[in-house]
């Protein structure tokens, strides 16, 4: 069946975390084998610091451990922009999204805070899109 429900396979990107300093957060490495691209959803909760900003970058590699990775070229980000995916202190309870059509097998995102000295709640999910061979099967629980 070719519909939205059977065309996206969701994977954990970033387990919910409270980031209280300027330590960068990295998502799970996503294996895109068999799919044309991937959505990245970033979800914010409360962001307590009054001047914190969070920049998002994407890396791609043909190695499963991301060795030799390169920054994803902006031409491969076909939905949204890296700038728009970032967030700041007054972006509580929001969602950011990107659609990436990487030519490499593995991708990973990094969220880098600046000026963050208080709790910022962040989570993320990867959605593999456009399966090349068959409809996806998502485990219910």
Notes on the structure:
The protein is mainly β and 141 residues long. The protein is 3% helix and 51% strand. The chain is built from 1 helix and 11 strands. Strands 2, 3, 5, 6, 8 and 10 form a 6-stranded antiparallel β-sheet that branches. A 5-stranded antiparallel β-sheet has the order 1-11-4-9-7. The longest helix is centred in the middle third of the chain and has 4 residues.
What's the arrangement of secondary structure elements?
Blueprint: E1 8-19, E2 25-26, E3 30-31, E4 35-47, E5 53-61, E6 70-71, E7 77-79, H1 82-85, E8 87-88, E9 95-100, E10 106-114, E11 120-131
Antiparallel strand pairs: 1-11, 2-10, 3-10, 4-9, 4-11, 5-6, 5-8, 5-10, 7-9
Name the descriptors:
5-stranded antiparallel sheet, 141 residues, mainly beta, Jelly Rolls, 11 strands
């Amino acid at each position: 069946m070719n519909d939205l429900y059977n065309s996206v396979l969701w994977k954990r990107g970033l387990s919910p975390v409270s980031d209280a300093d300027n330590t960068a957060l990295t998502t799970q490495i996503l294996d895109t084998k068999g799919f044309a691209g991937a959505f990245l959803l970033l979800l914010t909760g409360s962001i307590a610091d009054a001047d914190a900003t969070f920049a998002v970058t994407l890396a791609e590699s043909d190695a499963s451990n991301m060795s030799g990775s390169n920054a994803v070229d902006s031409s491969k980000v076909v939905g949204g922009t890296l700038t728009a995916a970032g967030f700041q202190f007054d972006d509580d309870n929001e969602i950011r999204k990107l659609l990436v059509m990487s030519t490499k097998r593995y991708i990973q995102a990094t969220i880098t805070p600046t000026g963050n000295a208080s709790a910022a709640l962040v989570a993320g999910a990867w959605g593999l899109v456009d399966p090349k061979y068959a409809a996806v099967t998502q485990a219910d629980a």
